[in-house]
Design brief:
Elements lengths: L6 E6 L3 H13 L2 E6 L2 H10 L4 E5 L8 H9 L9 E6 L4 H9 L4 E5 L3 H12 L1
Parallel strand pairs: 1-2, 1-3, 3-4, 4-5
Helix pairs in contact: 1-5
Length: 127
């Protein structure tokens, strides 16, 4: 395990297996990870903890999707420039990519992806 912290990341995904698997891999390489399964919980964490970036699943099963969550972040001056990486399963339509770009996403990652490849993509984006 890397003992030097790279910073803090918020991982918003309603799939607990994903948050555990990817969260463990991010932690292993030095990130401090906070996971949330619902946007309202994620937003509460964001008001309490300073994060370096946010990873957001597009397809949340709670009435609010990842795009709506990020749109609300962008409307808040405190979070308008927060780096965001979208994570999604099977949603690679041009429309979704366009929406992600419109919301100034730093990256758009498709599942399935191995935890090691996922972390490599994250490190390319945020260092």
């Amino acid at each position: 395990m890397n003992s030097e912290s790279k910073g803090r990341v918020l991982l918003l995904d309603d799939d607990e297996a994903i948050t555990m698997l990817f969260g463990a891999e991010l932690t292993r390489v030095g990130w401090k990870v906070t996971a949330a399964e619902k946007p309202n919980v994620a937003f509460k964490f964001m008001t309490q903890i300073k994060f370096d970036f946010v990873i957001v699943d597009i397809n949340l099963n709670c009435g609010v999707d990842g795009f709506q969550f990020v749109r609300s972040l962008r409307m808040n001056q405190k979070f308008e420039n927060m780096p965001v990486i979208f994570l999604t399963a099977g949603s690679n339509s041009d429309h979704d990519v366009t929406r992600a770009k419109f919301l100034r996403a730093s990256d758009f990652v498709l599942k399935p992806i191995t935890p090691a490849n996922f972390v490599a993509r994250i490190q390319e984006v945020v260092g």
